[in-house]
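Lecture 7, part B: from sequences to assemblies.

Below are the input chains for today's worked example.
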Amino acid sequence: MKRYRTTAWIVLAVILVLSLAASFVPGWSYKEQHREFINASPSLHFLLGTDALGRDRLARLVCATRISLLLAAAAAMGALILAAIVGGMAGYLGGGFDRATVRAIDLMLSLPWLFLLIAARALLPLDASPETSLLVTYFLLALLGWAAPARVVRAGVRGFRQSDFVLQARALGCPETRVLVRHILPNLRPILLAQFWTSIPIFILAEANLGFLGLSASEPFPTWGNLLRDLQSPLMVRPEAFAPVAAVVLAVLCFKFITPWGGSQV
Amino acid sequence: MTPGLSNLARKLAAIGATVLLGGLLTAALVRMSPGFDSDERLLDTRLARDSQAAARAEHAANSNIVRFYAHHLAGMLHGDLGESPSLRRPIAELITQRLPVTAELMAFGIVGGWLSALSLALAAVAFRRGIAARTASIFSTFLLCLPPAALAVLIFTWGGPVRIIVALVLFPRLFDYCRNLLEDAYARPHILMARAKGLAPARIFFRHVLPTAAPQFLALAGVSVSMAFGACIPVETLCDLPGIGQLAWQAAIARDLPVLVSLTMMITIVTLLCNSASDQAAV
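Predicted structure of the full complex, as structure tokens:
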């Protein structure tokens, strides 16, 4: 298993470095339209061919990889911060706030994730600028993805609340905030880290689904979800159109191996 | 009141509170969304002044979120879910018409997903180093990494059976859990003893393994209902199946407040009841 994990780390690092490095290649644009090469097959000039607007598929895939990987990680971090605040406070304070939080978590987890996402995404402007729509999509993932990690954090904090070192800190007159921030939160690091790595592939797949339904970032920004939409047109189903599928599968697979328990929550 | 009944009453009250909260939250979100106050019907120059006034009045009634929600709830108690502003049809009728499509898709998905996951997990546990176990594991991992929408489009485009898509989405999510639960159950001392005594594998499975793992399987069964509905949304939308999932997507795109609130409450009730029923059965 350790061998797989190391390989997954290396593959992910290579993908990320290549996608970041590609942004420095001059003249290689994801949005430039080559009108004389519309729907072109793979060639030396366009390794993955071009799309219906004559844009280089490889350039778009590389850019989408960069966007999807980095923003999914950022959204996972956002969701985790929210989960740590809400779950930590609920677990530590207990009482009414805890009960209300548990009810809210139950509500969030009882609704299918995709239903919640499309309902929330559709409430926001669909004709926003590409940058805004991109940020809105991932912001929503962070905003709605807090429930599952919050439940784990809450359980962790409740476990530590009555532990000896916390009682000792309190007995020494340590303020409650300091107990929570300096003594309990550092002990939650393994839980938070595991939740972070689990959330990234969930968010990648969620964005891919949203992209398919036309609710992700708007053109010309490429994300994995947007690129996968090409598969909806039977005319576009050519071998090179499967490159985004391969990219998503490879990335999620790597995260599955990196996640401590094999990412079965994906 | 006996402790069992009071426990049940408390759980039902908690479900009721969650459902009401979910409905209110959805209604509030839709109300706050940009563009809610606009109505495309008002742009139709053919509309007479009184028709425009009626459209405005209808919209104004939905503007006060508390009043809208109270009115909607009162209607729901009498079986009236209101009318869809975007589809111009009674919501109850829309749901009734579309429910069989989703129910069929979900039933096929849940039964197919569970049968395939359980049988392959059993094979994987029984023959740990066999080809079947490895193939099942690789197949499950691959499906887990594939976005459900991509799976739906690929099968639909290639003319495959649309009914199996939900089962294929559920399979990897259930397979991992089933395999882990079965591995755990087969490692229990009393089952090792039964195997050492030479009991038939079928007898060991049905008499010893299944009862041991039943509570966790039942809990997973409750969650699989929610998973199946989540999978129905892209499947119905992309494969053009007129079900509840497609209705949810259409309502979300059209910002159809009454439909969204009704669907949210309906889905919350179904998933919470399934989860509670599986929890109770597990106890």
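Note for the exam: Residues 111 and 117 of chain A are 10 Å apart (CA to CA). Keep this in mind when comparing with the next example.
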